[in-house]
Every structure is written in C-alpha cells, then in structure tokens.
Amino acid sequence: MAWEFWVDRGGTFTDIVAQDPVGHLHSHKLLSENPEQYIDAAVQGISNILGDIQISQADIGAVKMGTTVATNALLERKGAAVLLMITEGFGDLLEIGYQTRPELFAMHIQRPELLYQSVVEVSERLSAEGQVLTPLDMVKARNSMKLARAAGVQSIAIALLHAYVNPRHEQQLASLAKEIGFDQISTSHEVSGLAKLVGRGDTTVVDAYLSPILRRYVDQVADALNVGGNCKALMFMQSNGGLTDAQKFQGKDSILSGPAGGIVGMAQTGQQAGFDRLIGFDMGGTSTDVSHFAGKFERSFETEVAGVRMRAPMMDIHTVAAGGGSVCSYRDGRFQVGPESAGADPGPASYRRSGPLTVTDCNLLLGALSADYFPAVFGVSGNMPLDLDAARSKAEELSSQNGLQGTLEEMAQGFLEIAVQNMANAIKKISVERGHDITTYTLQSFGGAGGQHACLVAEALGMSRVMVHPFAGVLSAYGMGLADVRCLREGQLDCDLDDEGQVQATLDSLQMAVTHELATQGIACP
C-alpha cells in the first residue's frame, strides 16, 4: 500500500487525515494562512505528516482535497477578467436578471457586482428549435475578441440564445477564441446545457471567472506533490459530493468543495453508527455549515452564492457566519457576533497576532476551551499555545470603550448565547421550516469548534442525542477519503409524455457521457 492524504482546506484551518502504507490513520491540523512559515497549507501539512520523508521520495497513492480557493475568490471578487459574448440585443440580460427584489422596502438598492469585465453582443440568432435565423458574423466576433485580448482579458464566457438546442455557433466562437489565444473558454452548452439564458449565462460566467484561479492553484499543488511521478493521483471534491480528477475540476463545481466533504463524512459515519436521520453541524473557524440527511443526499440545482446565481448540482448546505473566528463586537447598542471573521491571519486575539475578540476567545475566557489541549501552532514562530491574557485584554478593551456593565465572563456568555441562537436558527431553516421533526434526529457535531457548542445548540432545538465521531475535528477531511468519484450530467427534452423513445434516447445519451467521463478517470462502469 501507498500513502493517501485527505485534505480539507478551510477558511481558518487546513485539516489532513492520512492513511499510511500499513493502513493506520493520522490526523493533522494547521493554519490555512501562515505566510512566515509556508506557501500552501495543504502541501506543508502533508510534509509535516511524512516527517523525514521528502514528498518527492514518498510513495503516494492519492491526494484527495476540498478547497475554498474558488469560494474565497468569489466572495472577495478576485477572479479572472472575463469577456462575455452573448446574442445581439441581450447585452444587459445578466445585469437585469430576474428582477427579484429580496429587500422590497430598501431605500438604497445595492446590486451585486457583475463578474464579467466587458460584454460583446454577437450578431447571430437561432430559433427556439435551433434553426439559424441570423448567421454568425465571424468577422465582427474576431475583431471584438482581438480587442479584448489586447486589453489583457484571458477568460471568455460564451452564452448564446437557444445554444442548448443547437451549440454550433458557440462551438465556432470557442474555436475562434482558442485560435486568438484565450486561456479559459467557457461555453454555456457545455457548462449548463439547459433552457433559460439567464441561469445558463450566469453559470458560464462563474465558470470563466473562477476556473483560471482554480487552475493556478491545482497546478501549484500538482507540481509540489509531483503528481504523475511518485504521487499517482490528485483529486478534488466537487460541490455535488463527488470526487473528480484535478484536471477536470471546474470553477462552477468548486463553490462548496470543502463543506461537501463534511456531508459525505457525516452521512457515512452516522450510518455506520446506526443513525439514518442526521442534522450536520459543522462549525469551523470562519462559518458554520448545517445540513439535513434522511437516508439520501439532498442537492439543490439552482443556488445563489455571494450575490451570484448559479445552476449546478450542489449539496444542500446552509451557511451562517458564526464560527470560532467570528468577531464579537458591540454596535448599535447591542452585542453582535459576525458576520466578520478574524480568519487565520490575524485570527482570534488568543492566536497571538493582535486579532480581535472572537467566539474562540469567549470560550477561552469561560474555561470551555483549554490552551493545554489546543494545538500549539500560534505566534510568529508557529509553535506557541493560545494566549488567555490576550483574549482577556481584548475583552477588557471592548468593555471599557463601550461602558459595558457586568463581568468579562458575563459578557463572554452573552456573545456565546447569540452565536448559539444564530446556529440554531440556521438549522431550523433547513429542517423545521421544511416540515421535519428534528427532535428525533441525531445532531452530528464536527468541525474544529463544533464540540464546544453542540450540546448548547441541541438544547436550543429540543434534540436529545449528539454524535461526536473520533475524527470530528477533521471530519470534512475524513469525508474526502470516504467519497466516491462522481459525475453528474443534466439534460432536457421537449416531447410528449408518452414518447418513451425520445426520453430513453436522452437518458442513454447522458449515461454514455458520464460513462466516458468516468472511464477517462480509470473507473469502469457496468
């Protein structure tokens, strides 16, 4: 046997579970960002576990990863510059969207920032049946692409009307874009081959926006691990809960890469323990992810993340900004927890990097967290324990600045109660509000901060049973090792309900596509 490494690169911590050649499991945890010590936490963590063995000399069977790289790029709007090419007359379609108004009475409307840098309207038109009404003007398209390429744009999203029925025009534009030298070419019929141009176009733009960032990270990790040499395979977790080869990992499938591994780990370990109905409570450093499981994975196919619409299969996960690193503050005359997070750098005050007061610091003040049992990975040198004095100093500073009454412990308890209610409300949204009686469910607690709050959350929800797996602190990473390679494809057809021939032909086409996809990854389907 060879080594296997299962990695979850979170917002605050990177978790690693390793299976050595004998079959024994090892776990490791380190900060996701520590510029003074290492460039990439995943590679560093693998190196730490191997000890005296160099990565280039180790026999590594596979590295299976979940990463927040693309998610962070989306949240921080740090993706690639994108040129959107869309059918003439629809240049502002994605900006208009569906005209939904989630805050109906808001006086100041703030629209999410568009992901594409520029838009070009393509002279072409297809009918709803896919017949050419206006031929594609390749000369005009070529000139537009050259101008964008000269301006430094390297990523292009092509989304044309009715291309899901007839992709010919998109294919011609993609060939032209490749000839001109675009690094990333995303076409809507391949990214999301379904009707409705808004959803299809949005997903295509997301893919073009994130894939270059993801590709750079994948290549960086692959080079460091010597993939293809002594490391046989590098795989990444997709938002749909399945693994895929690193070279096939796309931006649109990466948004819930890390949390999806947690759900797989939760479901597999829960069922092994005899529990089929579970509420996943994954509390990390930056946020808390909650999920519902009643015998099968729940997926959503149209979602909105960070103000961006996407149409891709994803695990149904609800996230709330209440993690161990959530900032505790006093604003507008009341205590508030989050949504800001201290992250890994500077991290909570007790991390010895002059960070703010956080939920972790409150637990430390109350004695619910002991520095003696916490990894000594803090400070500039990366080998110091948690600093109780720093947490107390920040709490005293907050209290004196705002003239708060009561002891520091009472203040810390107040912040924790707010955080617990935020997390309990998140669980109600994906369970009680959908008609599930969760008092008979098991609360599966995992994530680095889950154990500190699980009983409080269960009590707030009327739940009587909490499960904590031995690998609960790194269960998302453990889930990477339990996950299957998975390929999902969507299709649609327009026919009478009794036209079984066309329905079967569509299903056969989809099955053939996924069978071929899996075969390219070395997996034979019956």
From the structure above, extract its key features:
globular, 35% helix, alpha/beta
Give the termini distance in whole angstroms. Answer: 26 Å
Mean pLDDT: 88
Structural class of the helix and strand makeup?
alpha/beta
Low-confidence stretches: none
> How many helices in DSSP terms?
14
**Main sheet?**
6 strands, mixed
User: Could you estimate the helical fraction of the residues in percent?
Assistant: 25-40%
Roughly what fraction of the amino acids lie in strands?
A: 15-25%
**Would you count the extended β strands for me?**
23
Shape: globular
Any idea what the radius of gyration is? 25 Å
What strand order characterises the main sheet?
Answer: 3-2-1-4-11-12
Q: What does this protein structure show overall?
A:
This protein is of the alpha/beta class. 35% of the residues lie in helices and 21% in strands. It is built from 14 helices and 23 strands. Strands 3-2-1-4-11-12 form a 6-stranded mixed beta sheet. The protein has a 5-stranded mixed beta sheet with strand order 19-14-13-22-23, sandwiched between helices. Strands 6-5-9-10 form a 4-stranded parallel beta sheet, with helices on both faces. α8 (257-272) crosses α13 (475-482) and α11 crosses α12 (450-461).
Helix and strand arrangement:
Elements: E1 3-9, E2 13-19, E3 25-31, H1 41-50, E4 60-67, H2 69-75, E5 82-87, H3 93-96, E6 118-122, E7 125-126, E8 132-134, H4 138-150, E9 155-159, H5 168-180, E10 184-187, H6 188-191, H7 197-225, E11 234-237, E12 243-245, H8 257-272, E13 277-283, E14 288-294, E15 299-300, E16 303-305, E17 308-310, E18 314-315, E19 318-320, E20 326-331, E21 334-341, H9 359-366, H10 388-402, H11 408-430, E22 442-446, H12 450-461, E23 466-468, H13 475-482, H14 500-519
Parallel strand pairs: 1-4, 4-11, 5-6, 5-9, 9-10, 13-22, 22-23
Antiparallel strand pairs: 1-2, 2-3, 7-8, 11-12, 13-14, 14-19, 15-18, 16-17, 20-21
